[in-house]
Write a sequence for this structure.
């Protein structure tokens, strides 16, 4: 019988991380039968090496299924499964385990052997969608254990899947289509000419999944003055340069919230306007860019309402980044950069801008206070360039108070790289001490600061 020589045991190397050793002597001579036995043993060892189990575990395979929803379109839970966040709680021999899994109708988890109870809360953009609980599952070591969890719909919110312009018109733009609490899930990109008002809905959350809605008409893409809360998350809203109206019009009592990787772009006029008492724009993330290409308007305009910026960016727009004319702006984080006008401009007595953090950079002037008050508690204003007052310009009806933050690295074509104050304007530190200005000899008693300013 022909013999086969095996000079090295490869299985020993493959499984050395398990602390196993090949029981056959290295450098031995094997018959065909012995060699086949070794190969078979090696296959078993390799299988063990790459097993998903960690020695003493079993698996629970969870299938999410449910009854029809009484609210929403479509009316079956299964249609929404890819867009849900499954918050799973397992209670068993080793205590309570929590797992969060995004999307899908089936999830597999590995746990210690024993009896386990499984409960699931399905969320859609932070909104309760459905819940369910299984009976006890007896998990065996090295085995798969399958459990079907019947999901009971939450009846507090109506859910809608929107894939095209016809769906959008029916859901978002038709009088009486929405009421109460609503969640719209976008599953396709589309172009529409229909203005959204969301009818008489109290709240609307739009989960975009990175999809884009292009508004190809003139006027406002969204317009509401009846008081509601609208949240967009991972939604791209795009206008056209021919449209000089704001894409988003926030009317009386309306709160509009921008989150995630959302964007508002490509419009000929402003991206957003808060245009009435008790109108509120909150930007937690995302981008507002490429609007107002001719510099006639601004990216965001605040009239009578308020704007709070907690993150995201306002960049690459024509004209002013944030234009306040009768309202207030609070900047806690984020960036305002690369706009062809001032980063922030205050226009009227009573306008307020409070900067607690974030950066204002690379604009045609950092902050211009034509009238109103600017309080800087933190953040950085740098890299801006304009005629006078590269960092901050204070007009004769303006007030600037610097309690914190840094102003440096800005450029003025004439005077005041960091700060320029016109006669009648006020500039002081947070402790009430006046900021010492160098007099502008050509037009006294105007003054300026070219060096770095740091709040105190």
């Amino acid at each position: 019988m022909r013999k086969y020589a095996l000079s090295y045991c490869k299985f020993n190397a493959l499984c050395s991380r398990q602390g196993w050793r090949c029981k056959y002597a290295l450098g031995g001579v094997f018959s065909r039968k012995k060699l086949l036995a070794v190969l078979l043993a090696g296959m078993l060892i390799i299988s063990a090496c790459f097993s998903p189990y960690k020695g003493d575990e079993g698996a629970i395979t969870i299938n999410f299924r449910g009854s029809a929803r009484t609210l929403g379109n479509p009316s079956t839970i299964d249609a929404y499964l890819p867009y849900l966040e499954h918050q799973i709680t397992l209670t068993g021999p080793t205590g309570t385990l929590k797992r969060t899994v995004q999307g899908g109708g089936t999830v597999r988890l590995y746990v210690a052997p024993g009896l386990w109870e499984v409960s699931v809360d399905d969320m859609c953009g932070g909104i309760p969608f459905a819940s369910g609980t299984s009976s006890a599952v007896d998990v065996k070591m090295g085995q798969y254990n399958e459990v079907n969890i019947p999901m009971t719909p939450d009846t507090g919110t109506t859910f809608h899947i929107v894939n095209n312009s016809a769906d959008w018109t029916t859901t978002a733009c038709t009088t009486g289509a929405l009421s109460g609490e609503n969640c719209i899930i976008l599953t396709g990109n589309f172009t529409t000419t229909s203005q959204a008002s969301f009818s008489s809905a109290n709240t609307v959350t739009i989960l975009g999944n990175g999809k884009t809605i292009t508004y190809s008409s003139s006027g406002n893409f969204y317009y509401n003055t009846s008081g509601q809360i609208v949240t967009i998350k991972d939604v791209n809203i795009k206008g056209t340069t021919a449209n000089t109206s704001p894409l988003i019009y926030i009317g009386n009592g309306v709160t509009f919230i921008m989150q995630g990787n959302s964007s508002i772009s490509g419009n000929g006029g402003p991206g957003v306007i808060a245009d009435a008492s008790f109108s509120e724009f909150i930007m937690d993330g995302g981008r507002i860019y490429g609007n107002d290409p001719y510099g006639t308007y601004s990216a965001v305009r605040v009239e009578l309402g308020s704007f709070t910026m907690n993150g995201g960016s306002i960049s690459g727009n024509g004209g002013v980044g944030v234009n306040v004319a009768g309202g207030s702006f609070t900047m806690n984080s984020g960036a305002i950069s690369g706009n062809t006008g001032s980063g922030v401009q205050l226009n009227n007595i009573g306008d307020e801008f409070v900067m607690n953090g974030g950066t204002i950079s690379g604009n045609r002037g950092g902050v211009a206070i034509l009238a109103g008050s600017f309080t800087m508690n933190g953040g950085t204003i740098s890299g801006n360039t304009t005629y006078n007052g590269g960092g901050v310009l204070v007009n004769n009806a303006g007030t600037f108070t610097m309690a914190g933050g840094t102003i440096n690295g800005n450029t003025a074509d004439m005077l005041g790289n960091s700060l320029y104050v016109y006669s009648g304007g006020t500039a002081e530190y947070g402790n009430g001490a006046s900021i010492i200005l160098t007099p502008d000899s050509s037009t006294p008693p105007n003054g300026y600061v070219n060096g770095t300013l740091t709040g105190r």
In short: Residues 336 and 360 are 5 Å apart (CA to CA).
